[in-house]
Amino acid sequence: MTDIVDEIRQAYAAVGIRLDQPATYGAYYRLLCAGCGRMVGNVGDKLLPSMAQDVVTAQFDLYASGLLGCACGHQRDATRRLDPDRWAAAQK
Ligand SMILES: [Zn+2]
Fold it and tell me: Does the model's pTM come out above 0.70?
């Protein structure tokens, strides 16, 4: 595992998403719901250092409002725990 992959893993873990093993077709990792294991997307490992956190931070409102993430609501719950104030603001 490279540092950037660890960084991606940690950034997504904060919002309730875990990285699967690399997909066979290239340097992409499937993103799985940490609650129920359903695939919610994928991410490349070509991000520059610190970009993974920025991407997840930029998507916070979408996870909080349920527009992104798994239908089971795990990311919604995770973002609520992570930042209740921002989460509440995203519910409009
Ligand atoms: Zn789920």
Answer: yes
Domain ranges across the chain: 3-86
Q: How far is the CA of 67 from the centre of ligand 1 (A)?
A: 13
How far, in Å, is the centroid of ligand 1 from the Cα of 2? 27
What is the whole-number distance in angstroms between the Cα of residue 73 and the centre of ligand 1?
6
Are the C-beta atoms of 46 and 58 separated by less than 8 Å? no
CA–CA separation, 53 vs 33, rounded Å? 17
Q: How confident is the model at residue 77 (pLDDT cuts 50, 70, 90)?
A: very high
Mean pLDDT along residues 55-61? 95
